[in-house]
Amino acid sequence: MNSATSANPLPGEGRSETPVTALEIGMFLVLLASYALNAMDRQIFPLIAADVRREFGFGLADTGLLSTIFTLGMALAGVPTGYLLARWSRKAVLQLGIAVFSLATLLTAYSSGFGDMIVYRAATGIGEAMQLTVVIAIAASYFARFRATAVGAINFSFGVGAIVGPLLGGHLIGFERNWRLPLIVFGLAGFAAMALIAVAVSQRMTEKAGTIDTRIDTRGATTMWNRNTVLLTGMSVIGGLCIYGYLGMYPTYLREHLHYTPADTGRVMSIFGGGVFASIFGGWLGDRFHPKLVLSLSFAGAGLLGVLLFSGPTGMLVQSVLSFAWGLVVSGVLYVNLAGYHIKSVRASLTNRATGVFVTTLYGAGAFAGYIIGGIAARFGWSAAGFLQITLLSVVGIALAMSLRTDRMSLRVRQP
User: Fold this and answer.
1) 174: CATH
2) Higher pLDDT residue, 78 or 117?
3) Does 2 fall in a domain?
4) CA nearest neighbour of 16 among 205, 214, 200
5) Tens digits of per-residue pLDDT, 252-290?
6) What pLDDT digit, counting tens, does each position of 381-401 carry?
7) What range defines the domain where residue 197 resides?
8) Domains in the chain, number
């Protein structure tokens, strides 16, 4: 391994960022809790997709598009949000994002057909992109020397929502026999989260700017147009197609192909959230080990799981284990480090814009992931869909990861 790109710190290297107080950590936890609620909302529609499809008579591909179209909204809002952050306070952008997301979630419950429903679903992504970009920017500023680990903490909170959302949503559907009820409950909860943030989180905390050791930062690119960002953009596109191919249509696969009940589907999807709990550890791996190793092994794991999930044993225990593994490898390691390495590819002054590029590319590809995998499944079957969209694309991801120039990234340095 090139000593210039190792993750080990110099002996005696001190912290260059301003110390974070316990009160600030508490406020950051409130922000993470709001993102966990966001994750609950996000996990609900794939769970109710079969019910929506039955009521409105949507095709399989159209249902997949509805499940993942919110990521198009995220893609459209990602880069503009990065520029908006340069002009507005982070707290203002965060609150606006939660408001847009929550209102669109509520309106989805009152949709009259495919046309207005797809608009509301896309709008949820606009709000989520604003919230996610802000929270990542705050985390990267606070923990400048451990950026991937900080992003892992954000994804950890997503894991909490990914567990609670399907479980609670499944029970709400069963309680009222109404797929609209979970959307209403979680939409209203978003406005409650806005009120909590307004009271409990100060602008002094959200606008705090951290610093990073200049010996590390000078290796990052001074422009967004650089080799590593281009390669990571390609990997983010692949990551979006893989991640949202699973998140968007795997619940439909369980319900329609394996004939799972809504409650059982919710249990399996909540176990996926348990795997996401490894996000902090996954971020530590990204801070500690070589980017080529971390990303290539993550893509290899995703490719293998793509075959097993849609072609392997159909029992609930096995599917639960595979779903947990997907959360661990793909969301807990791959997603976290794609975000972290985007930031590490550039100077600290470009953090907001790098985050915006990551959000735009990964979620932009994810917007069509459900439509594509649903179309492949309708024509060739679920086994072919998993192999073509997840396994083969993961092989391309490995090739891109091996082409990174890690000597040009702002990685931790080691004493020669």
Assistant:
1) 1.20.1250.20
2) 117
3) no
4) 214
5) 899 889 989 888 888 888 888 778 888 888 888 888 899
6) 999 999 999 999 999 999 999
7) 20-408
8) 1
| Sign of the four-CA dihedral 229, 158, 200, 189 | positive
First to last CA, the chain: 12
219 close to 408: Cβ distance less than 8 angstroms: yes
The answer as to whether 161 is a domain residue is yes
Burial (CB < 10 A; 0-12, 13-18, 19+), residue 68, is buried
* Alpha carbons 400 and 28: distance in angstroms, whole number: 34
Which SS3 state, helix, strand or coil, does residue 404 take?
coil
Write the burial class of residue 294 (CB in 10 Å: 0-12 exposed, 13-18 middle, 19+ buried). Answer: buried
Residue 1 lies in a domain: no
**More confident position, 333 or 208:** 333
CA distance 105 to 21: 35
Given a contact cutoff of 8 angstroms between Cβ atoms, the answer to whether 148 and 288 are in contact is no
How many C-beta atoms surround the C-beta of residue 119 within 10 A? 15
Residues, the chain: 416
CA–CA gap between residue 207 and residue 88 (Å, rounded): 10
Residues of the chain with pLDDT > 90, as a percent, come to: 36
In a domain, 130, yes or no: yes
